[in-house]
């Protein structure tokens, strides 16, 4: 019984991992049971079975992509002290992630945000919650740094979050669309300048 549960989990993970790679290029809407079945050498029923529906498979893929983003950026940043040090650590990890993305077409969260922003439904709702949480994490570090006197008292936390997000999205486009090898280094410099610090 345990072996079959382990095997089912491994199969599910394999499907999701392949789905993340495919959706990175084709988008979540372009993720099909048929394309996954072909890539994995499985039947369509075998691919959809662990999820129950294509919509649940798409949600599992998006959930995994968000987890990879979190593991690459938030988790290492948590080792730094809250405030400016943690914000700097997040910026460094974020720019490294953009420069060496695990996805064929760059930041999955950025691509999914563009794809889903006008598409109501469970996927958009889930992604909105995750992006809101990420922005809240950044905002919290700005507020803590400001209260500790590490940043200017007049610095607006929401302005900083919007600016950092805009720089990251521009860098992702410069890397992926324009092939600019210097974009991540520039993004890190711009983000660090935007945050400042005393």
From TrEMBL:
InterPro entries: Homeodomain-like_sf, HTH_TetR, Tet_transcr_reg_TetR-rel_C_sf, TetR_C. PROSITE patterns: HTH_TETR_2. It comes from the Bacteria. Coiled coil: none annotated. Residues 32-51 bind DNA. Pfam families: TetR_C_13. Keywords: DNA-binding, Transcription, Transcription regulation. Residues 9-69 form the HTH tetR-type domain. This is TetR/AcrR family transcriptional regulator. It comes from Amycolatopsis melonis. The lineage of its organism: Bacteria, Bacillati, Actinomycetota, Actinomycetes, Pseudonocardiales.
